[in-house]
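Why do we bother with holo predictions? Because pocket geometry can differ from the apo form. Keep that in mind while you read this record for adenosine-5'-triphosphate.
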Amino acid sequence: MFRNYIKIALRGLVKHRAYSFINILGLATGMAVTLLIGLWVYHEASYDRFLPDYEQVYQIKRHYTIEGETHTIEAIALPLVEIMENDIPGIAHVALSDWGNAHSLMVGETKLSSQGYFVGEDFLQILKYPLLRGEPATVLNDPNSIVLTEQTATALFGDADPMGQAVKLDNSQELTVSGILRDVPGNSTMQFSYLLPFSLLENISPYVREARNEWLVNSFMLYLGLAPGVDQEQITPLIENILAEKSPDLKPYDPRLSLQPAADWHLYGRYENGRPAGGYIEYVRLFGIIGLLVLIIACINFMNLATARSEKRAKEVGVRKAIGSKRKHLIVQFLSESLLLTTVSFALGILLVYLVLEPFNQLVGSEIRIPFDQPLFWLLMVAYLLLTALLAGSRPAFYLSSFNAVRVLKGGMQKQRSAVWGRKALVLIQFSCSIALIISTLIIYQQIRHVQDRPTGYLRDRLMMSEMSEDLNRNYEAIKADLLGSGLVEQVAKASGSASEINFFTIISNWPGRNPDRAHLEIGAVRASETYFKTMGMEIIAGRDFKSNLEADSHSVILNEAAIRQLQLDDPIGQTINWNRNQNVTIVGVVKDAILLSPFTPVHPTLFAPSFNHESSILYRLSPNVSPREAIPQLAEIFDRYNPAFPYEYQFADEAYARKFQLELLVGKLAGLFAGLAIFVSCLGLFGLAAFMAEQRRKEIGIRKVLGATLMQIWLLLSREFLLLVLISCVLATPLALYFLQDWLLQYDYRISISPLTFVLAGLLALIITVITISFQAIRAGTARPVDSLRSE
Amino acid sequence: MISIHNIAKRYRTDEVETTALNGLSLEVKPGEFVAIMGPSGCGKSTLLNILGLLDEADGGQFLLDGIDVSRYNENRRAELRMEKIGFVFQNFNLIDELTVYENVELPLLYNGIKAGERKKRVEYVLDKVQIMHRRNHYPTQLSGGQQQRVAVARAVINQPAIILADEPTGNLDSQNGNEVMQLLTELNESGTTIVMVTHSEHDARFSHRIVRMLDGQTVAESVLV
Ligand SMILES: Nc1ncnc2c1ncn2[C@@H]1O[C@H](COP(=O)(O)OP(=O)(O)OP(=O)(O)O)[C@@H](O)[C@H]1O
Ligand SMILES: [Mg+2]
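The structure, written out:
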């Protein structure tokens, strides 16, 4: 029996090629999109779960409240380590980590610069990144050791055995390779090429040693490995209030500690009021929903085309019923047909995913692959296939099998009003979803454009920046002279951060006119050389710039407008403020606001102080007539002279700024992609439906033409209904899109207000696409010779 | 075999109500060959559809083999159709996507007959209606007469007790029509009860008894044998 069904189905597929093509292409696209999104969702959800025993791994989060607002950060103070290790039962391992920086590694002539972390001794017993060589418990014991990933080891040593070999770190520390890690997979939150013992950092950085007993310096992250059987609920009450107990200074800020499990690191990065408040998970959920929508849209095509075609299949149903087929036989038959079609589409869909996976990975910056080798994947795929077949096939199956045998055999199968309405409702759903996606895409891009157009407050053009090593810091004056002397560069400055970051945050604890009830002002701090503002192209709007003899300005600071606003200083120049609790400084200038952090938020209040120390960034602006392509090799030469341990690396400020839009651009690209696909699949369905309508009304159209109808009138006759449907969809799509976007926009302080024009534009776009789609059929019907359609009766 | 009493059938459309059958009674004995005649629209097809359990009457009694089937649900009706009744239609109603062989085989599939047995029976009936040489053709590749012979073959494949034929020769020329009538006569001679609707006095003469209808009622009967 089943063979018979498949036989009929296959022959039907071949006989109605156009119909099958539309159906399969639509369904394959839908299934491919859903599969792709599914893989992406799976990838995002798999972060850090590859680590053995990841359920026992936690990171400490610190919460504090200033002026009613609770902030959450990972940075903790070092005295916590000992308390966690000794006083809290249930914690098996504790390990510190720094924030991860690029360092240079040198072996003989080979040098490379890549990201690595200083981590505590027990780190690999908590985050169990698999070691190929060495023991997790001991590889980080010796302060002068380094653990390389396989790839880094190969880059440095080629085929030679790296174990026990020497590596020079940042041109100063001689280290010995003590272990080899398997390469860190893409779905790891921490990305690194090597690990260094935290004890080394203590040896080489006096400030780390000094911070050992300092409760007010929060510079590192802390990871905990809980003992087997111990969970978050048991530990949290024990650690929650440690800070307030140990450091009375902190008490006014209501400090609390909490744990975040490794499985949540990637997806639940955002905290609000001290509680997890989502993060990346929102996008994962959003696109999960979109994936389902696209699948539903594709399934609707199948349903609609199948029920439209049913008029042709009615006779078959009648005959089958007359010779004794039960309804359930027919349902099984039509479901098997749907299964067949779905299977073909699925195969095509997998092929599609396979083909677009690489470009997709590049687009979203992921490392997704299809896990062909996993039985679970295939099991899920079979379930996916069956579910889709059921979703797509159930309506046609129940509808077709319900035909009255007498009626359909008599020929004139009357149009079933319920079927027509059902079809219209389904088209409405399709187009509402597609148009909502179009609207969303437009608004996301408007928001991005809006923020991109925001004045940055500094000149990004030709501004370059590089990280400063110890060598560069030592040779700063010399390299500055060389750079300027070469004529390639017109300005050079150094600062504690590049043009797109603020690395330090501190507090202004007192200022003139401060309301005594008011706590301190949290403020960003940039240490800058005397040429900083000129190099950055930032405008001093009151007072003066730093003097070229910085020593004379050692107690001067320059604030940005945002800081002045927060401090509510009417006449800031010459006022003395207290910085860092103990340092009195004088405001000598006010600089125009510049976006050093997120372009989506208001400019952070920022203090600029003269730099007397080693800094992390050197900033330099190319001369106007110099082409970057020619300049870069010459710049590399100069940098190599003073920074032999590092390869020359640089960033352009405009590129660094553009990266701040990465997530938003990604969301925009994905939304655009899926909106395009959704409308494509919807139009495929509409195209097929229009073809059926035109065919059904062939005779009517022929007669009308004999009676003198024009092409325009025929077009209107066939298109009217669809145009109306799309118009109604526009109306339905509006609240749908608003519902999703309102939330999305609200997370940005600096945002557009949604204009009704966008909705009109999206609707117009959808209408135009619809008109093109259905006109093809309408015009074909309208230009056919009437004889042909009449004769065929 | 078939006994209907006081059967009524009305069709309601938006404005008008048509009475297709109006208290009609009919008795068909096992092995009989009955022809039903009457002007267009008098309710012949309606009657045949009710006899074939494809349609339900609005009132009256319907005994099939002495069993009241008027209240059977669709599933039971489907079973009965498969078991006892074969249909032959004016417009053949073969499934275009299936070959001659597969069309004839279809009722056996629904009946759950094993493959070997199926092949034997299909080949036997195809042979009998002399269409064996066209077994792998599709219906659209056959002439009207050939199609109707296939339809007859399909109607008898399950060895039904009753064959209901609605103008089986209506779309055929006289020679093809005669061949089909010959087939039906042979079937009747081997014991199958036949009820046939026809407009042709010539065809009607193949039957044992002619029932004449008018406005949903029987108005006359003439026994031929
Ligand atoms: N589905 C229907 N809806 C409404 N009226 C119907 C329907 N089917 C049949 N009728 C009406 O019922 C009456 C009987 O129809 P039926 O098809 O039984 O006639 P008939 O005797 O078979 O005619 P013909 O010889 O032309 O085939 C007719 O008046 C017809 O208009
Ligand atoms: Mg009739």
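The interface with chain A takes residues 45, 49, 52, 54-55, 74-75, 78-79, 81-83, 86-87, 89, 91, 93-98, 102, 106-107, 109-111, 154, 158 of chain B (CB under 8 Å).
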